Amino acid sequence: MASDITFEEYMALSRITFEWADSYDSKQFDRLAAILAPEVTLDYSEAFGQKPITMSKESFLKLSDNPNRLGGIVDCIHHIGGSKYDRTGPDTVTGYHQVRTEYKRYKTVEKKEVEATGQGLTLMHHYYKKVDGKWKLAGTKPGRRMNDFNFDEIFAEGNPKSKI
After folding, report:
1. In sequence order, which residues have a C-beta less than 8 Å from that of residue 4 and are 6 or more positions away?
2. Where is 139: in which H helix or E strand?
3. Are 60 and 36 in contact (CB under 8 A)?
4. Residue 146 contacts by C-beta under 8 Å, 6 or more apart in sequence?
5. What is the reported pTM?
6. Are 151 and 118 in contact (CB under 8 A)?
């Protein structure tokens, strides 16, 4: 059964959530690296029908900073609405965040011509884990509540059906 977290934990986890969103939006992947656990699980089963995968922090950063994704031709902005946190173990917490995300995918890195735009509403699950006494982001699971425009083409690499 889930239980409450302390105020100090709430503040630490809220900071991690902000850093997660703003590091993507600003393309400051060093900030993303600072909040990640050594292993990160991505669960896109609900959003894209893919099996969850666990990868090293370094592999996750490489995926995030990919020039064909958030590291280059895709710009984004994450708006975080309401959040709640449930303790799931002595050193683990699950966060639930209402997130609205806007994306633009450009044809080239010069960003002169937009190829696709998309907006999504999701209930984002974040999995937090204490590592060496500090809270870290250990996983994400976006839901898929509502998408607008040509959202499915945002992360396509030559194939509009391609995902993560």
Report:
1. 87
2. strand 134-142
3. yes
4. 120, 121
5. 0.84
6. yes
Instruction: Name the strand (E) or helix (H) holding 126.
Output: strand 114-131
**Average pLDDT for 112-136:** 92
Q: Which contiguous run of DSSP H or E holds residue 89?
A: strand 74-89
H/E stretch holding 101: strand 92-106
- pLDDT attached to residue 120: 85
Encoded amino acid at 43, one letter: D
pLDDT tens profile 12-28: 999 999 999 999 899 89
Structural domains of the chain in order of their starting residue, each with its CATH number: 7-153 (3.10.450.50)
pLDDT in tens, 81-113: 999 999 999 999 999 999 998 888 888 888 899
Structure tokens at 51: 């099996």
Please give the torsion angle defined by the CA atoms of residues 55, 58, 60 and 64, in that order, rounded to the nearest 10 degrees.
Answer: -170
Nearest CA-CA partner of 164 in 80, 76, 59: 59
